[in-house]
Design goal:
There is one protein chain. The chain has helices at 39-49, 59-69, 112-122, 130-136, 159-162; strands at 5-16, 21-28, 31-36, 72-83, 86-96, 102-110, 126-129, 138-139. It has 173 residues and is α+β, with helices and mostly antiparallel strands. It has a single domain (5-144), classed as Bifunctional nuclease domain, CATH 3.10.690.10. The chain has an 8-stranded mixed β-sheet, sandwiched between helices.
């Protein structure tokens, strides 16, 4: 994996652009890869990051449960290609027999968004090919993240407010 792929950190999911498109941010070395995804996949990734459990298994939870039932483990997610503005990924799954002996490694094609939703649940690494990161990743030093000044309203229970006399009409001016 280390020759043609780099391990990336899932920084999270955010809304970007004028239409607030859900976007995954993957950081690898000095670059960030932005991948636009659907709102349902964004929610699935968010729930996985927050380790939220629903009453019944959601689709990505179901897949992880199926893998476990088949003595399989998701070993990695690999985003390997970019063609016509579409990213391509696959899952690497290890299968073991009842004694724990490795019986095979299976490559399963998957959308990057679904792969990432599975990776956060399986706590497995995410890799991006160096070629994809070079082509589509942005230099982290060239990215300007939102920097806005935050102001908070005065606390109505602050010391300044306690001296106010509600019956004094001049206090309301």
């Amino acid at each position: 994996m280390t020759d043609s792929f780099i391990e990336v950190e899932l920084m999270g999911v955010t809304l970007l652009g004028a239409v607030n498109s859900p976007t995954v941010l993957l950081r690898g070395e000095d670059r960030i890869l932005f991948i636009s995804i659907g709102p349902f996949e964004a929610a699935a990734i968010g729930w996985g990051l927050e380790e939220e459990k629903s009453i019944r298994p959601m689709t990505h939870d179901l897949i992880i449960n199926l893998l476990a039932g088949l003595n399989c483990t998701l070993k990695s997610v690999n985003i390997y290609a970019l063609q016509q503005s579409t990213f391509f990924a696959y899952l690497l799954v290890e299968q073991r027999d009842a004694s724990g002996e490795l019986t095979g490694i299976i490559r399963v094609d998957s959308r990057p968004s679904d792969s990432i939703a599975l990776a956060v649940r399986a706590k497995c690494p995410i890799y991006v090919s160096r070629a994809v990161m070079e082509e589509a990743g942005q230099d982290i030093n060239a990215i300007r993240f939102g920097e806005s000044e935050v102001s908070f309203p005065e606390d109505p229970e602050s010391d300044d407010q306690e001296d106010d006399d509600p019956d004094d009409p001049t206090e309301r001016l």
